Amino acid sequence: MPVDLRSDTLTRPTADMRAAMASADVGDDVYGEDPTVNALEERVAALFGHEAAVFVPSGTMGNQICLRLVVPPAGELLCDADAHVVTYEHGGAAQHGGIQSRTFAGGLATVEAVRTELRPAGWGTVPTAAVSVEQTHNRAGGAVHPLGVLQDLRALTLAEGISFHCDGARIWNAHVAAGVPLDVYGGLFDTLSVCLSKGLGAPVGSVVVTSAALAEEARVLRKRLGGGMRQAGILAAAGLFALDHHVERLAEDHARAARLGEALGVTTETNIVALTVPDARAFAAAARDEGVLLGVVGPTRVRAVVHLDVDDAGIEHAAKALSALL
Ligand SMILES: *Cc1c(COP(=O)(O)O)cnc(C)c1O
Q1: Backbone dihedral region for residue 282 (phi beyond 0: left; psi -120 to 50: alpha; all else: beta)
Q2: Ligand 1 centre and the CA of 56: distance in Å?
Q3: Enclosing domain of residue 309
Q4: Is 85 touching ligand 1 by the criterion CB < 6 Å?
Q5: Of 136, 137, 117, 135, nearest to 127 (Cα)?
Q6: CA distance 193 to 63
Q7: CB of 173 closer than 6 A to ligand 1?
Q8: What is the mean pLDDT of residues 280-306?
Q9: Is 262 among the domain residues?
Q10: Rounded to the nearest whole angstrom, what is the distance from the C-alpha of residue 124 to the centroid of ligand 1?
Q11: Which of 53, 104, 252, 316 has its CA 20 to 30 A from that of 43?
């Protein structure tokens, strides 16, 4: 078996997680009658200090719903050029929400960049309706937005009367790496989309976290997008299991990523090791021959993502194989 470092979406549910799924109480969630989904939604809302949460099939759907909650058709979303919402969601904001996206330089957001690019109403320009940031930032190698920057951005968006969205696919990693409580993150945003299927190891699912009023709208948007699921408690049970058992252990992934990074001469913040190489495709092919699968994210960029299914032996093997190739 190769060491598969392409993404942390590749985790398979553990035996204990499967047992929790098999024994879940279920009902029809479109009727609001699945007790396990309801428990998951209440728990995640409470974790982030918000009123409500909505279980959705994917992080992409979570983001798409949130963006429509905070940006009207033909309104403007402001985010960085490498953000998942404008890079990996196949133009969904434009297609589904009629949302115009404008970007500043790719990578972690800065207060300076947002202040410079933000366009208030009354200028004769398309007014910015919301700012979106990613925590952690996928294409920035799992980098964590410092809490102070997010707090300043919250102050700025409040002063401008616009919304603040968090693509928190890996916010759990930020929470563990930076030691920032989830409700402190939650308190900064009008909407968050958080993934259960990345580092937390659930097979499916993300959660939209927001106010009670917006959550009601989110349920309508979810249904309209075809994301209303029936006996989804089977899936929500995996999420609840992951919250119980797979959050604090993310520190192990971070330690392994740091070890791999050290061997390869790059620094890491969370579970992603980003490498610059002369030819990403050729490098990934050579790594594959050595039993290490990498993600190709640009012409000269590959990444290794550490997750639940990667152990110490896998990291040692990857460190040896990749340093030889470098
Ligand atoms: C993985 C990811 C998502 C959601 O992806 P899905 O595959 O749709 O669940 C959203 N944002 C970021 C930053 C991600 O890394």
Answers
A1: alpha
A2: 12
A3: 249-325
A4: no
A5: 117
A6: 6
A7: no
A8: 98
A9: yes
A10: 34
A11: 252
- Partner residues linked to 132 by β-bridges: 165
Give the total number of structural domains in the chain. Answer: 2
User: In degrees to the nearest 10, what's the CA dihedral of 218, 224, 166, 117?
Assistant: -110
Pocket-testing residue among 6, 136, 138, ligand 1, by greatest number of atoms within 8 A of Cβ: 138
Nearest CA to ligand 1 atom 14: 169
Q: Which of 186, 216, 245 is the last residue of a domain?
A: 245
- Model pLDDT for residues 240-291, shown as the tens digit of each residue: 999 999 999 999 999 999 999 999 999 999 999 999 999 999 999 999 999 9
pLDDT digits (tens, 9 = 90+) for 161-188: 999 999 999 999 999 999 999 999 999 9
Query: Is the CB of 138 within 6 Å of ligand 1?
Result: yes
In this structure, the answer to whether residues 33 and 111 fall within a common structural domain is yes
Distance CA 225, CA 84 (A): 19
- Domain end, chosen from 206, 223, 245, is at 245
Q: Is residue 1 part of a domain?
A: no
Residue 3: inside a domain: no
In this structure, are 225 and 302 located in the same domain?
no
Q: Could you count the other beta carbons within 10 Å of the beta carbon of residue 281?
A: 12
Residues 202 and 300 in one domain: no
Q: Could you report the per-residue pLDDT of 23-53, keeping only the tens digit for each?
A: 999 999 999 999 999 999 999 999 999 999 9
